[in-house]
Amino acid sequence: MSLPPAPVDNTTRTAFKTPDITPAQITAAVGAILGLLAAFGLDVSAPTRDAIAQLAVILPSVIVAADALIRHGRSKVAAAQIYAATDAAQLVAPPAPAPTTRRAK
């Protein structure tokens, strides 16, 4: 029977805490609202309406994709740190006792 691994201090994970609603998501929502206003006939000139529609389509998708890439990078760094901490904790854990065997009489 082996001993369970030593407990790992996961306090480093809190350093990578990210907000639930990011500025990228807010900007995407504002762009989508502008697009809806333009679609429902906001009283602006045709070129301005076209620019708003293009902005509403392109900007949110680019910002959300960039936000996803940033979050992915942060999660990879956090996972590497947790893995390193777990690996180090297992290296300093006391060795498991040798199994005892009994000889048959």
Largest sheet: none
Number of helices: 2
Find the count of extended strands (DSSP E, 2+ residues). 0
The separation of the N and C termini measures 24 Å
Averaged pLDDT: 74
State Rg: 27 Å
> What is the general shape?
rod-shaped
Low-confidence stretches: none
Helix content: 55-70%
* Chain oligomer state: single chain
Beta-strand share of residues: under 5%
H/E element order:
HH
Query: Which structural class best describes the helix and strand composition?
Result: mainly alpha
Task: Explain what this protein looks like in three dimensions.
- This protein is an all-alpha fold and 105 residues long.
- It has two helices and no strands.
- It has helices at residues 23-39, 46-92.
- α1 (23-39) runs antiparallel to α2.
Short description:
With 105 residues, this protein is mainly α.
Layout of helices and strands, plus pairs?
Elements: H1 23-39, H2 46-92
Helix pairs in contact: 1-2
List keywords for this structure.
105 residues; mainly alpha; 2 helices; 0% strand
